Amino acid sequence: MTMGHRIRPTAARQFAPADLLQGILMVSSFGFWAVMLGLIPVLLFRVWLIG
Predict the structure, then answer these.
(1) Which helix (H) or strand (E) holds 37?
(2) CA distance 41 to 7
(3) Alpha carbon separation from 23 to 9, 11, 26, 29, 40 (Å, rounded)
(4) Alpha-carbon separation of residue 29 from 6, 33, 38, 40 (angstroms)
(5) CA angle, 36 then 29 then 15, to 5°
(6) Cα–Cα distance between 30 and 40 in angstroms, integer?
(7) Per-residue pLDDT reduced to its tens digit, 5-37
(8) How far is the CA of 7 from the CAs of 16, 18, 31, in angstroms?
(9) pLDDT exceeds 60 at position 2
(10) Per-residue pLDDT, 18
C-alpha cells in the first residue's frame, strides 16, 4: 500500500498511455529507418549493376 501511494497511481495512469504511444512511434519510426537504410544500398547496387 505504501509503495502505491508513493508512486501516485493517478499520475501513472495519466502518463502510461502517452509513454506507450511514444514507444510505439519510436519503434515504428526505427523500423521505418531500418528498412530504408537496408533498402537504399540494395537499390544503389542494382542501379550500379544496370548502369
Answers:
(1) helix 9-50
(2) 48
(3) 20, 18, 5, 10, 26
(4) 34, 6, 14, 16
(5) 175
(6) 15
(7) 565 556 556 667 788 888 889 899 988 888 889
(8) 13, 17, 33
(9) no
(10) 81
